Amino acid sequence: MTAPRVEIDLAKVHHNARTLVERLAPHGIAVTGVTKATLGSPAVATELLRAGVRGLGDSRVENLEALRRAGVSAPLTLIRSPMPSQIARVVAAANVSCNTELEVIRALSSAAGAQRLVHGIVLMVELGDLREGILPDDVEAVAREVGLLPNLALTGIGTNLACQSGVVPGADNMSELSGLVKAIETSLGLTLAIVSGGNSASLDWALSGAETGPVNDLRLGESILLGREPLHRRPIEGLHTDAFTVVAEVIESIRKPSEPWGQLAQTAFGARPARVGHGDIVQTIVAIGHQDTDPAGLQPPAGIEVLGASSDHLVLDAGRRLAPGTEVRFQPNYGALVRAMTSPFVTKAFAAARPRPAVTSPVGDAD
After folding, report:
1. How far does CA 245 lie from the centroid of its chain?
2. What is the C-alpha separation between 157 and 126, in angstroms, rounded?
3. How many helices (H) and strands (E) does the chain have?
4. pTM for this one?
5. Are 120 and 144 in contact, with CB atoms under 8 Å apart?
6. Would you call the peptide bond into 4 cis, given omega within 30 degrees of 0 as the criterion?
7. What is the pLDDT of residues 217-275, one digit of tens each?
8. Catalytic machinery residues
9. How far apart, in whole angstroms, are the C-alpha atoms of residue 38 and residue 339?
10. Does position 84 have pLDDT exceeding 90, yes or no?
11. What are phi and psi of 296, to 5 degrees?
């Protein structure tokens, strides 16, 4: 099989999604399965839906369109604010979109009317992470105007934390979200169908036994795909952390000095990696680099150290010579996974979903 590639174990993806759906259900919280890290993969989307997610979310309209072309009929949500240049495509592909700008929402109303559709609006609220969101004092007024626009439905409100600034979801910011829900529902005389309490970073809060109030949805990507929570990247007990594996092929393995020589300046990607002299080493190169993934996000096998990377080369100290053609397997973090899945130079190899025994190791590699 060709390399570089990402090997995707769909059974492990299914298990992770099903486990989180079942753990959140007693708290009244459903899951929107986020496909953006997989380039809107229909195969992954199918497993998420089979596992019981309420719908699918993606940040790119192109991925939502790909899911529609593949025959996915589940509710689709655009989880990034729509670009004005893509408004008509958003309405055609997505049932719901997350929004912050009234100008964009008015354009969605017009596009939905032209397509004879009703488009759902989730208003995103800024609760401190300083990414997208309407300031809390302004949310009620925006919600009122959305309710007056034709061809739109005020579907809900949501928030996003721990992405831009690492703000932790907790009692204070989630209580503020709950208060906004109550105020909007009372003022406008309606019930919001969706109250989205954030992404995988909100799992600790949601499962802590805290009062979750009206929150009835989480948008989960990393926790399902990699079996880890994003706040500290700790494995989630009972989930697989190895559903995705990046595989790269050795193209050189030669004994060389461990330190460069000659006058040094910047590398192709800026700062020089630190290289500590240990005499000669067998330096091994695998055919993958910044153009394919995030090299800093690749965890090599035990006994192998990543020394540096360029566009197309990942330089390793494997401790011994590896013959050209040897494959080296890495566990990606979220950033490395996103870039590998979106690179046209990285093959995606799916292992068909099949029944698997229950996971017993909290690391997720028991089977």
Report:
1. 16
2. 11
3. 10, 16
4. 0.93
5. no
6. yes
7. 999 999 999 999 999 999 999 999 999 999 999 999 999 998 989 988 888 888 776 66
8. 36
9. 9
10. yes
11. -70, -15
74 backbone dihedrals φ, ψ, rounded to 5°: -70, 160
Residue with token string 């986020």: 34
- What does the pLDDT look like over 27-37, one tens digit per residue? 999 999 999 99
Return the amino acid letter for 185.
E
Helix 102-114 and helix 136-148: axis angle, to 10°? 20
Neighbours of 75 (CB within 10 A): 16
3-state secondary structure of 5: strand
Structure tokens that stand for 150 in this block: 């034709």
Integer Cα distance of 81 and 96 in angstroms:
11
CB 111 within 8 A of CB 88: yes
Q: State the DSSP code for 274.
A: P
Token readout for 118 is 């009703």
Instruction: Name residue 234's amino acid.
Output: R
* Residue located via tokens 């061809």: 151
Bridge partners of residue 123, in order along the sequence: 99, 157
What's the 3-state SS for 12-63? HHHHHHHHHHHHHHHHCCEEEEECHHHCCCHHHHHHHHHCCCCEEEECCHHH
Residue 78's H or E segment, with its range, is strand 76-78
Residue 298 burial (CB < 10 Å; 0-12/13-18/19+)?
A: buried
Token pair belonging to 92: 């055609």
The structure tokens listed for 262 are 């000659």
Q: Residue 186 has which token pair?
A: 């009372």
